[in-house]
Design goal:
- A five-stranded mixed beta sheet has the order 3-4-5-6-7, with no helix packed on it. The protein has a two-stranded parallel sheet with strand order 1-2.
- The protein is α/β, with parallel strands linked by helices.
- The N and C termini lie far apart (41 Å).
- It is globular.
- It has six helices and seven strands.
């Protein structure tokens, strides 16, 4: 859609063009070859901590540690990239875990009626509480583990029915870099 405005925060634009997002696209391109569309759209509008009205709907942009969330204040809903009360998340080490916990506690303090995500079903604040407990426990398990393999084994025992084991692998790499 070449003639459509493309919005992003400065941080999200950097992530997609020179940061971790670009690295993901490059890795997907290596893995899948020409069948993967590796193009990254050019942002036309940089936004920062502001309220917008698109299609007669008010949106508040809230910068996060990773990119941004979108709040729909009229209906008390927040959109975030990923939550998943019963799936592993990518946690980039202890400091990232702390940032995630603070962010999620903010959802509870604001008592959102609904949390929408890119990669999961609609969730509520009970699901947020479950995720906070998970992140705290991941941090604790990492502190008690000698290496990535031990960490993954302990987490899998603790959360045997969680999906997203590939995210657990990424988290293990962040807590225990090679």
């Amino acid at each position: 859609m070449p003639n459509v405005k493309k919005y992003a925060t400065k941080k999200a634009n950097t992530y997609g063009t020179v940061g971790g997002g670009k690295a993901l696209v490059e890795n997907f391109t290596k893995a899948f070859g020409n069948i993967f569309d590796s193009s990254i759209h050019s942002v036309t509008n940089i936004i920062a901590g502001e309220t917008l009205k698109i299609a007669d709907t008010e949106l508040s942009i809230v910068e996060t540690a990773d990119a941004f969330d979108i709040v729909f204040p009229e209906i008390n809903v927040i959109y975030t990239h990923m939550l998943g009360h019963d799936c592993h998340s990518i946690i980039g080490g202890a400091a990232h875990a702390d940032a995630m916990i603070a962010e999620l506690e903010g959802y509870i303090n604001k008592n959102y009626d609904l949390i929408l995500t890119s990669h999961y079903d609609p969730e509520d604040t009970n699901d947020v509480k479950t995720k906070i407990d998970y992140v705290k426990n991941i941090k604790s398990i990492a502190n008690k583990s000698a290496n990535a393999e031990e960490f993954k084994e302990k987490v899998k025992l603790e959360y045997p029915n969680y999906s997203g084991v590939n995210y657990l692998d990424i988290t293990a790499g962040a807590f225990f870099p090679a």
